[in-house]
Amino acid sequence: MIDENCPIEEVREIFGNDRFATEACGCRVIEASRGYAVCEFDITDGHKNAQGAIMGGAIFTLADFALAIACNMGETPTVAVNNTIEYFSVANGSKLIATCSADRSGRSLGFYTVDVVDDLGNFIAKMTATCFRRG
Asked: CA-to-CA distance for 36 and 2, rounded, in angstroms?
């Protein structure tokens, strides 16, 4: 269990082990608390698809990273069992920001919503997720 009062530096160190999100995609933890997380990445050419827009998988990775942090802070080990993502717009900014909030966090199941925006305030995507607590 990751203590819900864990300093942000320690949260960053723990989730730095998520190498795909942090190293391949450049995701960073901005805020973290029980049932809540904010993560971001700077948009690079490596995030783009053949049409020049951000690849859906890159957006999903950022949303999933924020979800992992929000659902594991102060909880027994938790994994996603279902994710649904809707894409609304292309990003026009230089950064993507994902904000995850718990809709309901129970003993064995948690329900979360992740909103993804760019740094210009454009609403890019929404993920909803059901998570299972393995404790």
From this structure: 13
Domain boundaries, the chain: 8-133
Q: Is the pTM of this model over 0.70?
A: yes
Q: Which residue has the tokens 């933890």?
A: 29
Class (C level, CATH) for 8-133: alpha beta
Looking at the DSSP bridge assignments, the partners of residue 131 are: 80, 110
Q: DSSP class of residue 88? A: -
Distance set, CA 120 to CA 68, 74, 76, 77, 90 (Å) = 25, 32, 36, 34, 12
Q: What is the pLDDT of residues 36-61, one digit of tens each?
A: 999 999 999 999 999 999 999 999 99
The percent of residues above 90 in pLDDT, for the chain, comes to: 95
CA–CA separation, 17 vs 87, rounded Å?
27
Give the containing element (helix H, strand E) for 37: strand 36-42
